[in-house]
Design goal:
Blueprint: H1 2-32, H2 40-84, H3 99-161, H4 165-193, E1 201-203, H5 205-222, E2 226-231, E3 238-240, H6 242-259, E4 267-275, E5 278-285, H7 292-295, H8 315-325, E6 329-334, E7 340-347
Parallel strand pairs: 2-4
Antiparallel strand pairs: 1-3, 4-5, 5-7, 6-7
This protein binds adenosine-5'-diphosphate.
Length: about 350
């Protein structure tokens, strides 16, 4: 509205200036026909009076004329404004604009069509990305679950063949551990898909950590990894969900195991200690460590450096959301070539 008014005003000023110039020209032409003895003072006075009288009329006429002349331009201006605000396809129907209007309409339609095409391509890309991510998760999940399944089937067959009761019991224990692992992996995915309200209890950290270590000790030993534990005495109790916290530790331990697969020195140190107003659990390995450029990203969902089918990039992001829900923190200290140290800090139960 304001822009249209100023457009009119601009045109009106130009018109008024043109009329004034024309008037001056006529006055000069008239003056050149007068006698040199003519009374110039009176002449200028009477002309000035006429000008003052006619000026408002000239201005009103000029404004009305300008509004008529600039109307098509004002319509074009408002259509361009709408186009700028994203109303692709907007048209301007002002016969006064002639070819300019048609060109604008063609441009606006082309922009509309191109935007629709881009939106479609964008939607297809997002769909493809989602499917790709889903495929990777499924592949990772199948791989992760198949490992304990192979263990379960193998130990069950061995148990079937043995006549030694102690050996059979050991096979049962291993089957139980593998079944728990498979369950843990599926639980991971469920937690990721639907982070639920956690049921909490006041618990001792050391037995919880020890049970997580026991669950994957066999797996780590198979990989030639030596596990060292040191649990501090007299730690304050914490409030949390032991299953979820165990999941976090299992994830850290299995990650440490995977990181050291190709490494000559394979050791994991698990320690608990008091930390400020709570407890700190550390899982340190002697693996290759984490590259500085990856350190800031390892807790991101789907960030993985593992080959296709081996990593899903969910473990640490799920772990972080679990620890966040416990009002704790999880961080990593690492130098390339010097292993990684994951520190989980949990507040004491009040
Ligand atoms: P995933 O194990 O499926 O890759 P995670 O979220 O558990 O997903 O881990 C993300 C990435 O963090 C891993 O791909 C790896 O690059 C890095 N990482 C995690 N733990 C360790 C570790 N102990 N040593 C070296 N790198 C690690």
């Amino acid at each position: 509205m304001r822009r249209t008014f100023s457009l009119h005003l601009m045109a009106a000023s130009v018109a008024a200036a043109a009329v004034t110039l024309l008037g001056c020209g006529l006055l000069l032409a008239y003056a050149s026909t007068l006698e040199p003895t003519a009374n110039w003072g009176r002449l200028l006075f009477s002309v000035g009076g006429w000008v003052l009288l006619l000026l408002p009329v000239i201005l009103i006429v000029a404004y009305l004329w300008a509004a008529r002349v600039t109307k098509p331009l004002a319509s074009l201006d408002s259509a361009m404004q709408k186009l700028k605000d994203g109303a692709y396809g907007v048209e301007v129907n002002e016969p006064g604009l002639g070819g300019l209007g048609q060109t604008f309409n063609a441009l606006s339609h082309a922009l509309h069509q191109r935007t629709e095409e881009l939106n479609l391509i964008n939607a297809q890309l997002m769909q493809a990305e989602k499917l790709g991510a889903l495929g990777e998760i499924t592949a990772g999940l199948a791989h992760e679950v198949r490992n304990p399944m192979v263990g379960i089937v193998g130990f069950a067959q061995l148990g079937d063949e043995t006549t030694d009761l102690d050996e059979a019991k050991e096979f049962f224990r291993l089957i139980d551990a593998d079944a728990q692992r498979a369950n843990g992996i599926l639980q991971h995915l469920l937690d990721f898909a639907r982070p639920s309200e956690i049921e909490t209890e006041v618990l001792d950290v050391n037995p919880m950590v020890a049970s997580a270590v026991r669950l994957c000790a066999h797996q780590l030993q198979l990989g030639g990894i030596r596990v060292d534990t040191h649990y501090a005495d007299g730690l304050p109790k914490i409030k949390g969900n032991s299953n979820q916290l165990r999941q976090v530790l299992l994830n850290l331990l299995l990650n440490a195991g995977q990181a050291m697969e190709e490494h000559p020195e394979r050791r994991v140190f698990i320690t608990t200690q008091r930390h400020e107003k709570g407890v700190e659990i550390s899982v340190r390995d002697t693996g290759p460590g984490i590259a500085p450029e990856a350190t800031g990203r390892i807790f991101d969902t789907f960030f993985t450096t593992k080959p296709r089918g081996k990593g899903t990039g969910l473990g640490l992001s799920v772990s972080k959301s679990i620890i966040d829900a416990h009002q704790g923190s999880i961080q990593v200290e690492s130098e390339p070539g010097k292993g990684a140290n994951f520190l989980v800090r949990l507040p004491a139960a009040s």
